[in-house]
Specification:
With 225 residues, the chain is of the alpha/beta class. 44% of the residues lie in helices and 22% in strands.
């Protein structure tokens, strides 16, 4: 990842930058808010580590300025202020996460890994499993290029299988996924949705066994179909 560290205290900035570079990241360091703004305008970063208390332009103002300019880069705010009000202020300004000083470098690294996974998810536009393609932008699923006419509940179920192709889902698992759409559904409803999905896959030229029954357990995605 390419990371911008905006931190005015060199005793903090140097060990963070050294540790991040040791992990294979490319790190630029800015010592005040204006310099951080200028860096963010000239280089496309994957992550910005942003101190709250900065000279020339404070972290909250810089974060708001970045978001107002259309910057989508993930921002992890670093601050010695640990009250709930301070955390809310930081997150409301557009930060994605908040880490209170002092912190261990291991914890910072873990937060960065978590945010890096979000970066990958944001960059990914589709999930392809064989002839099935899940479009993450339009929230549609197609078989061999042919869009499937799925109901919202059917889409949620098939999405689960495409995102987790090695997982076995019980009916209760799938029912949990449908909870926000239908709080009154029972496990028998899941069976009906699975049947309808299989029928639509077959009509599109696919195999009904793309969703296979694991007798006595539940259902799983069949990558061989």
């Amino acid at each position: 990842m390419r990371i911008l560290l905006v931190e005015d205290d060199n005793y903090i900035a140097k060990p963070i930058a050294k540790d991040m570079r040791h992990q294979g990241h490319v790190v630029d360091v800015a010592n005040d808010g204006i310099s951080g703004w200028e860096c963010a305008q000239t280089v496309e970063y994957d992550l910005i580590l942003l101190d709250l208390m900065l000279p020339r332009l404070d972290g909250i103002s810089l974060c708001k300025k970045l978001r107002a300019s259309g910057c989508k880069t993930h921002i992890l705010m670093l601050t010695a202020k640990d009250t709930t009000a301070d955390k809310v202020l930081g997150l409301d300004s557009g930060a994605d996460d908040y880490l209170v000083k002092p912190f261990e470098l291991e914890e910072l690294a873990a937060r960065i890994r978590a945010l890096s996974r979000r970066v990958v998810e944001m960059q990914q536009t589709s999930i392809v499993r064989g002839s099935l393609e899940l479009n993450l932008n339009t929230h549609t699923i197609a078989y061999d290029g042919q869009p499937l006419a799925l109901t919202p509940k059917e889409y949620v179920i098939l999405e689960c299988f495409l995102r987790n192709p090695t997982q076995v889902f019980t009916r209760a698992n799938l029912l949990d996924k449908l909870w926000d759409l239908d709080k009154l559904s029972g496990e028998e409803t899941v069976r009906t949705h699975i049947t309808n999905i299989r029928r639509k896959l077959k009509a599109a030229g696919g195999s009904e066994d793309i969703i296979q029954t694991m007798y006595g357990v539940g259902y799983s995605f069949n990558s061989k179909c």
